[in-house]
Design goal:
about 650 residues; alpha/beta; 9-stranded mixed beta sheet; 3-stranded mixed beta sheet; 21 helices; 22 strands; about 45% helix
Amino acid sequence: MDDPEDSTAKRIETRAIHAGQRPDEGTGALMTPIHANSTYVQDGPGEHRGYEYSRTGNPTRTDLEANLASLEGGRFGRVFSSGMGAINTVLNLLESGDHVVSGTDVYGGTHRIFTQVYESYDIEFSFVDMTDLDEIVRRYPAGFDYEGGRRDTSFAVELVRRAGGAQPAEDFLINFNTGPNDIPTYSVADLYACAIAGNDAYFARQFRDKIVIFGLVLDVEDRHVAANHLATARLDVAPSDRCVIPFDSEKFGQIVDRRSIPGVYIHAAAVNTLSKGIGLKLLSTARSFGVVTVSTAGLILLFFVVPPIAGLAFGFCVLLAEIGLSVVSFSRGIVPPIGAVALASILAFTVIYAFRFMVEDKAKRRIQHAFRHYLAPVLVDQLADNADALTLGGETRRVTVFFSDIVGYTSLSEGLKQQPEKLVDVVNRYFTLVSGVVEAHGGYIDKFMGDAVMSFWSAPLNDDDAERHAVDAALDCLARLEVFNRDVVEREFGLSPIGTRIGINTGSAVVGNMGSKSRLNYTVTGDTVNLAARLESANKTYGSLLMIGEGTRRGLDDSYVLRRLDRLVVTGKTQPVRVYEVFGRKGEVDTAVTERIAAFHGALAQYYRRNFTAARDAFAALAGDDATAKLYVDRCTRYLAEPPPARWDRAFVARTK
């Protein structure tokens, strides 16, 4: 082993423990004990053995000084047992006319010794508040004003001024967004060793035309939270080029941390900000207000339109976009009010959706409750989202009205007259079938009347394809009824199959809440409704199942197979209307049926031309299982016996409802 008496012996594995230390003479301890006594034995007055009073010197402190000097490669070190003693020693190095810039949060009685003792020696002191209200360092003062109008520049600003840089007119924000190489850190011990070695080239290379700040790096006493404390990455000190003593990453690797940095690095960051012209600027109050207002107003409009979950997602995306724009803005030296924007966004989300829940959604829930038994759920949701579509009190609209009635209801009721509950069950299940189909096609169930169902389209919500939706619903009802008869009426109840007749008409009608003051019903009324009901009943005359009026036919395209039935004057009317029978959708109707329809139309053309003989023969050829053709055979026979008047309008007047 190396000589333990040699304090500079290179025992790397134990140097931190043994460097500069000798075994205690009194106890033989290998590590220096802590000497807590305050006085020492003296040979005589003023004749001590190296120590007279603990505060002026003691063996523990002497060995600590030697240890620190050895670790830093120095020849000697100084350790003070009093913070004020250390500060006072440094102040004794100053001369009259010097100017000291100090932080406001200095140790103990430092402020008093500055202002009450050393100012009398013509030494000036300036104090800098290095913290913001939340104790996070963001802003650096440009200078300090005194009574009488005098103004002194701050420490960093003065350094930049002496280096030939521009001085800011007002306090500025420090840009901590710099790399570790922007603020290189050197060891005083290494510089001292370099000077002893006479390496002038190193000093010229490292420090020529540079601003150099000397300062202590303390673990606790001089640590500050900077504006970049929320960043996740660390900003470790870069290993600057060393002259003699190698860089030790364990000692210097974590001096600067984004979460806590020594005060000297705050001054260095301020100098770096000014010298490179990368100072940050806050938006003016007016512009910040404008940014926050515009952003918040946009989100408020969005929150009023979309539901809460979508609003949260959109708001989050908007906030991410704003953060992205803030990053771009920050890279250009402008600090946008992103904190205020985020806070305003959260408040807007909370307030708007609370308002909607209490006010707007209350009305929506009222509508949903009122219409949930009449409309398909999807239509109820649409109506709730667009309450303006519902005009209470009545309005004129173009609607398509649908009436259906059970064929064979009398026989059904007679068959179950001893079991009325089963009759109700069958009818309710039939209503459920029809209602489900109507709602699936966007229709509104108005009412149930005995064995009949009334529904309509284009109210309360507009429907541009109301005619098509109504006819599709009617065709689906007829198709579903076959399954209903097989599975329910015949198999479950053992009854004969039932049928249904449907009448559909389109035209203007009055829609709205109607009834008494105590009981209202959202319904439709008018001539269009009456005609739809008459068409349903007229099916009995023509032997058809689905009859539509001229208004409905105009709203259909050519994808349906229709047969013109007649110019019909229904009961209670004087003007004839063209009525049609719907057989189905093209591609779903047999070719034989379409051929018979074409032959029927040919016979009808002869009938309208008053060629009753030819028309009778043509209808007779179709009359085997066609009730409508049989009807026209009878008409032609009557007209051959007694021709119609010369101004015959070709209309047929119904005598029954």
